[in-house]
Amino acid sequence: MPSLGADMESAVLMEWLVEEGDKVTKGQVIAEIETSKGVIEIEVFEDGIIEKLLVEVETECKVGTPLAIIGSDIKESEEERIRISPAARRKADELGVDLSKLTPKDGVIQLSQVEAVATKKIKTHKKEKTKTTTKDGMRQAIAAAMSRSNAEIPHYYLSTSINMTPALKYLEELNKQRSIKDRILPVAMLIRGVVLALKEVPQLNGFWQSNSHIISKEIHLGFAIALRKGGLMTPALLDAQNLNLNETMNSLGDLISRTRGGKLRSTEMTRQTVTLTNLGDLGVESVYGVIYPPQLAVIGLGAIVDAPWAEGDALCVRKVMQATIAGDHRATDGRIGAQFLDKLYQFLQSPEELT
Amino acid sequence: MTQEELKSIIIEEILEVAPDIEDDEIEVNENIQRSLEIDSFDFLKILTAMYERVGIEVPEKDYSKVDTVEHMVEYFLKLIKIQ
What we know:
The complex is a heterodimer of chains A (about 350) and B (about 80).
Chain A: E1 10-16, E2 23-24, E3 29-35, E4 38-43, E5 48-53, E6 59-62, E7 68-71, H1 86-95, H2 111-131, H3 134-152, E8 155-163, H4 165-176, H5 186-200, E9 206-209, E10 212-215, E11 221-223, E12 225-226, E13 232-233, E14 236-237, H6 245-260, E15 264-265, H7 266-270, E16 274-278, E17 297-311, E18 314-328, H8 334-349
Parallel strand pairs in A: 4-15, 11-16, 16-17
Antiparallel strand pairs in A: 1-3, 1-6, 2-5, 3-4, 5-7, 8-18, 9-10, 11-14, 12-13, 17-18
Helix pairs in contact in A: 1-2, 5-6, 5-8
Chain B: H1 3-17, H2 32-35, H3 40-54, H4 69-82
């Protein structure tokens, strides 16, 4: 069972999507698990053959529990046959008991052993169900991560006002020529701006781990998505550095639907290198975020509002957005954060570079 | 198409885009995005779905005219009549 966040203790295996003997390739989804954050698809990290599924469907497993044995290649493993009394096997099938977890008594698994495990399993399952509902679980996970962040990470905060009129005008013209299905939302353009600015200032994209600053080449942009019934998730827009404006729009739409529908992949839950939070839809003007450890920064974008703006000697009204960054002061200084905001500003003044 | 038919199509599509909303939560006179926490993505999905249903594309400059269910009904009804 992989850890999908520092605060995850266990999850329930909901469904196997492969069978014993199946060939699997790196990145293939092999199972679905249910966590406090919804249903997540589990991927494999190496090519191989599923030799044995170790966990039955609907079993709660602690992080670190082996779920399956994947052989590296054609080499067949000599499987140890479990000896079990016929009555015990029938009971085990009926109750869904994992026989591999039992130690045979005198070489054979007995009926009483199966029953003992089954009762225990039902009891623990019930206990946990009453203890926390899914939503409470998510709250607890957020609480733990944010407390850790505020206790450990010395944050610095910077903010700047960005004139969004050029970018919005550009988008308006672009969308006029497109059918409604292919329209681009401002948020996709903002993500492109953030990604390009991070390419120029890579020090903010990566991790602080074991007292060292690790910069990631790939930009897996964690995008904060509020769930209407409460809670928040920040799944990753994977390899955002390779997506153009159209692809960014499509991938983001897909990511949002799957987040709300509870169909995320394990890599999307775990590989974020930086987080972007955009509370503009709710009318908030400035967002000062809390960094999600071990990431290095969280970027906040506020609502785009009509505001007075000085251009040369003239005072005019422009579409203005506040962009903020909260950085980890152990890894970077304010100068780096300031460079990032300046790059973001520059990109949003030349929107044709964002396509 | 009557006003009532159009209204029920709009509500149907809102519920389709945001299945976690209950239909009694929808107040026809309230701003859809604010009162139902519909973000810009969901809003575009609703308008795209309405295009599929009634064949009318709402241009971006008219977004302010389709901010509530009631306003949407008026907006689409007017254009359907012109067609």
